[in-house]
Amino acid sequence: MVLNPGALIYINYTARIKDTGEVIETTWEEEAKKYGIYKPGFKYAPRLIAVNEGWILKGVDEALLKAKVGERITVEIPPEKGFGLRDPNKIRLIPLRKFGEKASQIKVGDEVEIDGKIGIVRFIGSGRVQIDFNHKLAGKTLVYEIEILKELTEDEEKIRALLARRFGIEEGKFDIKLEDKRVIIRIPEELFFLEGIQFIKKASSSDIFKYVKNIKEVIFQEIFRVEESQTTPTEEAKS
């Protein structure tokens, strides 16, 4: 049975540029090491995808709609279904002096930020810098090798996967209790002071309502307990 829109699945994949064969991304650690793009500290693991929901490139989404769990597929992604076509209007000439004290350090190939946008330096000369604000993969045809590992069907496994995606920690660290049409989620202590946690909880709730149809109420709990040192009298106090 092919996958339906909105299905939550886990996939592994390796993506490369068709013309050069350069590997640009992979979820497999051994592949990252093999192709020289391994990042120490980065967690290589299957990626959660909601099919046809824009969580991945359009070309990949379309291919997943025709795929089945357990399949390995190879998909060619043209620019218009990947990172877009190159737009000449996104290439600008900027005075070198705009970079202030860092002007002398700028070189071709650098990524720089101008007016909140990231671009790549393509040329420097006559006191000006040519910056390309196109995505670095714009205009490139990509090839994705994808393995569809699993479709999530149980409410609890869906909730755990959605929480892990938003909070960035392992699924098993959440204590979850399902009660009729509500879910009670106990947040692990390590996340109590996570920056932006209220926004993350709101986004997680929206995900759960969308992809877990039986749930109508989400409750997050943060439980603080008295430390043992605070409840046990010291020897000095006893005397």
Describe it.
The structure is a single chain. The chain is an alpha+beta fold and 239 residues long. It folds into 3 domains: 1-86 and 136-151, Chitinase A, domain 3 (Roll); 88-132, Beta Barrel (Thrombin, subunit H); 154-234, Alpha-Beta Plaits. The chain contains 6 helices and 12 strands. The protein has helices at 29-34, 58-64, 155-167, 197-211, 228-231, 235-238, and strands spanning 8-17, 23-26, 47-50, 72-77, 91-95, 111-114, 117-125, 128-132, 142-151, 175-179, 182-186, 217-221. The strands form 3 sheets. Strands 1, 2, 3, 4 and 9 form a 5-stranded antiparallel beta sheet that branches. A 4-stranded antiparallel beta sheet has the order 5-8-7-6, with no helix packed on it.
Please provide a brief summary of the model.
With 239 residues, the protein is α+β, with helices and mostly antiparallel strands. Helix content is 21%, strand content 30%. The chain folds into three domains: 1-86 and 136-151, Chitinase A, domain 3 (Roll), CATH 3.10.50.40; 88-132, Beta Barrel (Thrombin, subunit H), CATH 2.40.10.330; 154-234, Alpha-Beta Plaits (2-Layer Sandwich), CATH 3.30.70.
